[in-house]
Amino acid sequence: MTWRAISGRPVEEGVLKGSVRDTVLAACRDNGVTVHLAPPAAAGVPRWEGALISSTSRLALPLDAVVLGPSGGAGGAGGLGGAGGEGGVAAGAAAGAAAGAGAGGGERGRVALAAGEGSLAWKIARWVEERVAAASVTVL
């Protein structure tokens, strides 16, 4: 299994090195998922197996779709960065089955991603939840 940890900028530039990101990377390492730290290219989105957002409030949230802007992405030079708007990219959290077609030819389009039970993004989210639960202490 391979998972690409991505950002809209060069990986170590502008990326918050927080506890949830560390937990995601550790969960991947401990479960045999190879992680390549590299900025994504918008042109590659239709080939992605899945994606997730990591944050302290949501931990690891699988995405069911990515919406590409008219230029096929955002952030210039085919990279991803920013949210919505002209030339932008927006992401949809997994909340059910994803419908839509892939984007191509520079057109705005919704690219469905695997986010359901059993998908790699779903597995990573579960592994992160398990790690956080194991490190948590009940306070009442």
Summarize the structure.
This protein has 140 residues and is α+β, with helices and mostly antiparallel strands.
Written description of the protein model:
By secondary structure, the protein is of the alpha+beta class. Helix content is 20%, strand content 22%. The protein has 2 helices and 6 strands. The strands form 2 sheets. Strands 3, 4, 5 and 6 form a 4-stranded antiparallel beta sheet that branches. 28% of the residues are buried.
What average pLDDT do the residues reach? 73
Tell me the number of helical segments per DSSP (H or I, 4 or more residues long).
Answer: 2
The largest sheet, given as strand count, sense and whether it forms a barrel, is: 4 strands, antiparallel
Radius of gyration, CA atoms, in whole angstroms? 15 Å
Number of strands: 6
Low-confidence stretches: 74-79, 81-89, 95-107
> Strand content of the residues, in percent?
15-25%
Shape descriptor reads globular
The H-and-E topology, N to C, reads as: EHEEEEEH
Q: What structural class is derived from the secondary structure elements? A: alpha+beta
Spatial gap, N to C terminus: 40 Å
Task: Provide keyphrases for this structure.
140 residues, alpha+beta, single chain, four-stranded antiparallel sheet, globular
Task: Summarize the SSE layout with pairings.
Elements: E1 2-5, H1 19-30, E2 34-37, E3 52-55, E4 59-68, E5 89-93, E6 109-112, H2 120-135
Parallel strand pairs: 1-2
Antiparallel strand pairs: 3-4, 4-5, 4-6
Helix pairs in contact: 1-2
